[in-house]
Design goal:
alpha+beta, about 10% strand, 7 helices, about 35% helix, two-stranded antiparallel ribbon, three-stranded antiparallel sheet, disordered C terminus, about 190 residues
């Protein structure tokens, strides 16, 4: 028996939300958009998602009003994907699922892969969204995402997004344009 692709007949709000963000890869695309990923190729490289699947998920998120497709400033015909107000409203869910994963499905190596800090004072921000230093609620644009103790350093062949996320970065700030990763010659090569 094949499972249906939608939740027909379900009237609860969670089922309706799952229609928008419940397919495989969708929440990871949204997470990356919060991290500052904006270009199709960067999503594809960082997530290693098949291009056809990525095209489908980006189209669905755009049609649902979670992402907006805009011309990239100063780039001619290139376009970028930007979170809308509706998309920004997903941050508490993305953050809560990340915290749940850190607690119940931790990465090897111990500790969280990413730390969320209040940009203003550098204090940790808990899964509930409040700064542990000043107690203020911290919106996504005021969060600094930094490597945590569970994040392995990127290898020499890491994609540019992985490399960029290995240094502290303010959420929603576009990552630097992707460049080809620096590949070191094999040992013994002059």
């Amino acid at each position: 028996m094949t499972l249906p692709r939608d939740y027909r007949g379900q009237t609860c709000s969670l089922a309706r939300a799952m229609e928008v963000v419940g397919e495989r890869w969708t929440l990871l695309i949204v997470r990356d958009a919060f991290y500052g990923v904006r270009r199709f190729g960067e999503f594809a490289a960082h997530l290693s998602v098949p291009r056809a699947v990525l095209t489908d998920r980006l189209a669905g998120l755009t049609a649902a009003g979670v992402l907006d497709r805009r011309p990239e400033p100063g780039a001619g015909r290139r376009e970028v994907y930007v979170l809308t107000a509706k998309g920004l409203g997903l941050w508490p869910a993305v953050r809560a699922l990340t915290a749940w994963g850190e607690e119940h499905a931790p990465p090897p190596g111990g500790g969280p892969r990413r730390l969320f800090l209040h940009h203003t004072d550098g204090a940790p921000v808990g899964p509930g969204g409040h700064c542990s230093g000043c107690g203020a609620p911290v919106p996504p644009g005021d969060l600094l995402v930094a490597p945590g103790p569970g994040l392995a350093p990127p290898g020499d062949d890491a994609d540019p997004i992985t490399a960029a996320l290995a240094v502290p970065h303010r959420l929603l700030t576009p990552l630097p344009p992707a460049t080809a990763p620096v590949r070191r010659p094999p040992k013994g090569t002059p």
